[in-house]
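Minutes, project check-in

Agenda point 3 was the complex the collaborators sent over. CS summarized: two entities, 854 residues total, and the question is how they sit relative to each other. Sequences were read into the notes so everyone works from the same version.
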Amino acid sequence: MADQPPTLTDQLLKFARTTPPQDAQAMMRLSLMDWAACGIAGAREADFTDFVRANRGGGDCTVFGGGTAGPAAAALVNGTLSHALDYDDTHFAHIGHPSVAVVPAVLALAQDVGAPMEDAVHAATLGVEASIHVGLWLGRDHYQIGYHQTATAGAFGATLACARLLGLDKHQMRHALGLCASMASGIKAQFGTMAKPLNAGLAARTGVEATLWGQAGMTAAADGLAGPLGFGPTHHGTGAEVTPGKSPWQILSISHKFHACCHGLHAMLEALRDADIDLARIDTIRIRTHPRWMSVCNITDPKTGLEAKFSYAQTAAMALLGHDTGSIASFTDAITQDADITALRARMRVNEDARLSETQAEVFISMEGREMRRFRHDLMAPMTLDARSAKLRSKASALVGQAQADALWQATQGDDLAALISILSAG
Amino acid sequence: MADQPPTLTDQLLKFARTTPPQDAQAMMRLSLMDWAACGIAGAREADFTDFVRANRGGGDCTVFGGGTAGPAAAALVNGTLSHALDYDDTHFAHIGHPSVAVVPAVLALAQDVGAPMEDAVHAATLGVEASIHVGLWLGRDHYQIGYHQTATAGAFGATLACARLLGLDKHQMRHALGLCASMASGIKAQFGTMAKPLNAGLAARTGVEATLWGQAGMTAAADGLAGPLGFGPTHHGTGAEVTPGKSPWQILSISHKFHACCHGLHAMLEALRDADIDLARIDTIRIRTHPRWMSVCNITDPKTGLEAKFSYAQTAAMALLGHDTGSIASFTDAITQDADITALRARMRVNEDARLSETQAEVFISMEGREMRRFRHDLMAPMTLDARSAKLRSKASALVGQAQADALWQATQGDDLAALISILSAG
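CS then shared the predicted structure for the full assembly.
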């Protein structure tokens, strides 16, 4: 083995023993607050009630909305609920939502074993960073063929985070990652259904279970992720070269959502944010986006509020008509049938443009009288941690109210895990 | 939708409403007994103790070896334990073990809701048949690239069986199959580790969870199995044409294992089963087998019980000397050094013969005085249900003792589910 170059599993085993840099931890704490606000708000959606009830087994781990469950069930439920709004953080290189797979797993186990906040932050930071690297390593082929990378790469990040938190030795952690390779799953066919957030919850549960079972002595493939017949080779992984731990950390380029819909729509919505248009004079609206988004969020004739969240035409019409795309309450079934909306949707043309990056969008609006307006935005435009903090506190307040948002801010920046947990259970 | 040809999901939804033919049900009851014997014996293996403990949540469903759990956890644990010995039934076309994914799921839910035995048999029969068809539909590509078809195809069969048992309507069942498409997983990299039987347990749990969550109103892709970005297209499925429900039913060509060793040795051992030979007069024993097995199970000088399970010479000598190759207890380190065994092994010659299929073997025994005896067997040769019953009862007796085997026979042929469950819990 000594003569072999390290595989991704070898790299991850080494990476799991490092301490994440401060800026990465700071970003993790911001994402922790954002994730918690999404989960508290998500638990208020009624649709998941029976699912939550079905997963309340014995255990003392807090579940969003109140009640307790064992750590695996708590990770499953909290992962699902905190992704229910599709409003949690994302990472474009990872092609997915990193915190929602990792954080519920870490918090459930941290509560279960009484781990300090600092250990939870370290573990979550490493887990998020690892999941982004696994996402990069799986790559575009994996995502394009139809895998839901939030869940697949996320499960490995969750496993690494949990294994780190519980202090698994290298041997146990290898088996935990191997066990994860048999459980990591989730397909994009689920987009637009409740199974999309479920995929995130399953990834979080996989992290908890792979860790607990690996700790309990269950064996698995020595390199279930990157080895022969392993997860990558079977699941259309590209095997791109990655270096977890290398600066700058990937976690620092996490994107937070400020619109309550698919992230693929955000650059367009930001572009239209300050558009001052006489709607009566609009002839045609042409939206240009990166080709990848065409199969993700281009539902041309949405019928439900959920489908509206995956529709360029719908959200562009909402933005132009002054509906608040930052508010969850805006995405109703009714608004997809609103006469002004459907009239404006009829004027939309969505096209791919390979010259744009995935974080860029352009909108061309042809007005009567040959006038042409052009709007564009790139989500990768830099933002300071302070500016991000302010925007996230404002978003949290919109999601859960000012008092809970303030409490979340204090708890995620402090060192009292129990204080954070108590806010999550408040509902 | 009406003009589209039915997809595999459409076919399965229709199939789930049919009543399986009597011979298929009879085969299912035989496999039920065989599966139960494998599980009872598997639970006695110590390695899984901590894993079992970790999965004993709240619930009243029986777990092999005693104790109870919720239906999902019981399916997970029982599926894993009943595959621990790799001695449960197989199907050549399915490329996997059908009962071990379906039966634990059905029994756990049947116990949970108090369903009658007849309903459980119907559901399990349909589930096994469906899983074989999904296996055929996924095909060789899926298996060859590295997916563990026992688990992947098995999860869909388990889901269909559970959804049928609980009487889900067509809408709920569609969502249950869609949910399964996000959870079905398992890779061949795990072969040789505890994660191989775990894959079977995960498939069984997926059947229970997809059904309960679909029943609870969770939505998923309308065709998560065969539709765009669905399980088949993402997981290297070939999409071969299949027709679940067509005669003859695939379940009728299930293979049961009658020897506690590598499957490559079974045709030879069956050939020697009724050989009436004067051992003192044997000069040479020549064994001919398909070339593929030469690198799999031809250890010429085994030193351990494990090596004995991969040795033509050893197992042939054991069979001729009257040792029970159906009993796990027969494969000890000591028997490889037994004087009679080693003397007989010295007279063995094993050769490949490309004219034989993988399921065929021939044995030529040269006796003193130029007498030559020839024995051959094909594992694909038809067997009556009566002959199969007798062999399976004998195997069950070797696994769990005569009394429990008799009780299992009575219970699996009768209509008292509680009686069967009580045997499983006896340990």
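Noted in discussion: Chain B touches chain A through 54 residues (CB under 8 Å).
Follow-up: revisit at the next meeting once the mutant set is ready.
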